[in-house]
Amino acid sequence: MLYTENESNAQRLWGVENRAPFVKDGINDTVVNRAEGRLNPQGVGTKVAVHYPLVIVPDETKTVLLRLSANPQSMPFAQAWEYPWFAAWDLAFHCMAMSMIDIDFAKRQLLLLLRKQYMHPNGQLPAYERAFSDVNPPVHAATALHMYKREKSITGTGDIAFLERVFHKLLLNFTWWVNRKDSEDNNVFDGDTGAGVGASHQTGWRAVVANLREQSGDT
Asked: Is 45 left (phi over 0), alpha (psi -120 to 50) or beta?
């Protein structure tokens, strides 16, 4: 594992002193140019690469098997050094993709986001670092349903207990969201610009919510 910092090499680019002792092109310098002292010897950093030295002759194939794991309290697409540099709703889509690889891990990620450390009692989830209070669409409920259906299609049994664990929190989140984006008081998404159905993506979110409600029998 090769560790450095996700910082530009200011000395090389602009001729000024680097803010960090290890910069992002340290990995390239080490692997390609065989430079020394460019990586963090303590094995920590905000940029990391896995290095497998291999000799592959013509017409030969070699396979590297790698298993990625994460601390149960971490988020795979966030940067721990400035948590939570992520978008809450992006994490929901990440969990959909992750469920194709490790559905238990994906479910733990969604549960983590709904813990009291991150979710406000009123149902608000942190949006992203530059604006915690921004309002993101409540796509996490769709993610939970997606993972339930995926697991059921594979194993024949859906994780009802998981749905029960997330239901109340996601209901709170939906209520918080719709109360801030429902100027017409009709319980549907009004759009982040106040234009209502005047913007195509806002019309799309209305359709998503309507479709999910129809699937759940809430018509």
From this structure: left
3-state secondary structure of 177: helix
Rounded to an integer, what distance in angstroms lies between the CA atom of residue 107 and that of residue 98? 9
Whether the full predicted model's pTM is greater than 0.90, yes or no, is no
Is the sign of the CA dihedral 203, 209, 215, 219 positive or negative?
A: negative
Q: CB–CB of 142/148 below 8 Å? A: no
What is the DSSP track for 29-40? HHHHS--SS-S-
- Reported residue count of the chain is 219
Q: Quick one: CA dihedral 39, 44, 47, 49, positive or negative?
A: positive
Residue 85 per-residue DSSP state: -
Instruction: Reply yes or no: is the peptide bond before residue 84 cis, omega within 30 of 0.
Output: yes
Q: pLDDT tens across 136-167, in order?
A: 778 898 899 999 999 999 999 999 999 999 99
Say if residue 200's pLDDT is above 60: no
Q: Residue 208 and residue 219: Cα distance in Å, rounded? A: 14
